[in-house]
Structures are given as structure tokens and as C-alpha cells.
Amino acid sequence: MAFNGAWKIDRNENYEKFMETMGVNVMKRKLGAHDNLKITIQQDGDKFTVKESSNFRTIDIEFTLGVNFEYSLADGTELTGSWSMEGNKLVGKFTRKDNGKLLTAYREIVGDELVQTYVYEGVEAKRIFKRG
């Protein structure tokens, strides 16, 4: 259960370019890059509860590995998909409801950090979190 615990955003890599590719307007991109995101993850077997808290919203997400669910990004983009475990990495495959395009997300522990990687239309971004 290495993912369990509270995580606070430390830094981003290529996140603004990723948001631009996703179609997020310039003002929301600037705000999104400095959202002060905190994530709390609780894993119980194949079930996960994730609380996301930022300057813009606080939401609770519950999912079971391999089971599709619906999710809305902070900018309102609606997705449907699921998370799976591949080795020590959580892999999320989500389809945008508005255009049918695939967004892939990865969560993995690297050293003492939680690294979230997003890939959309060939653009990769990372958000790196530290325990907090």
C-alpha cells in the first residue's frame, strides 16, 4: 500500500503544454499550474479512495481496479475509464466524452515521491508530489 497517505504537489514538468493540448484556456492553465493540489490516497485491496483538494475544488473519488467510472477534470472535461495495476504502477486509461480521445495517466512511487504522468495526443506531463 505504498500509495497510502497524503501527498502535496511539489513541481510540474511540461504541465502547461499538456493542458494546452487538452484544450484548457490560457487563464485556467496559469491557475492550474499553481493549484496547490493535495491528494490523499487510501488503498484497501483493489479499492481506492482518493481525496483531491486544490485552490479550486475538493472532491472524493472512489474506484475499484479494472472497473469503469466517470470523472470530471477541474476544467470540466468529462472522462470515463478505469485504473489498473501494472507492477508497482497505477495505470489509468480514460476516454474523453467530448471527443473520444484517450488520456492515459500513471501513478508511481519513485524514491520518496509520488509521480503522476499524463499522456494525451503525444504530449507527456508530470506532476511530482511529496508526502505531506
Question: Can you describe this structure?
Answer:
It is a single chain. It is globular and about 40 Å long. It has 132 residues and is mostly beta strands. The two termini are 16 Å apart. It is 11% helix and 58% strand. The protein has helices spanning 15-22, 26-32, and strands at 5-13, 38-44, 47-53, 58-64, 69-72, 78-86, 89-96, 102-110, 113-120, 123-131. It has 2 helices and 10 strands, in the order βααβββββββββ. The longest helix has 8 residues, at 15-22.
Primary descriptors:
single chain, 10 strands, 10-stranded antiparallel sheet, 132 residues, mainly beta
SSE order and pairing:
Elements: E1 5-13, H1 15-22, H2 26-32, E2 38-44, E3 47-53, E4 58-64, E5 69-72, E6 78-86, E7 89-96, E8 102-110, E9 113-120, E10 123-131
Antiparallel strand pairs: 1-2, 1-10, 2-3, 3-4, 5-6, 6-7, 7-8, 8-9, 9-10
Unreliably modeled segments: none
What percentage of amino acids are in beta strands?
A: over 45%
Major beta sheet summary: 10 strands, antiparallel
- Strand order in space, largest sheet: 4-3-2-1-10-9-8-7-6-5
- Beginning-to-end CA distance, first to last residue: 16 Å
Give a quick precis of the structure.
The chain has 132 residues and is mainly beta.
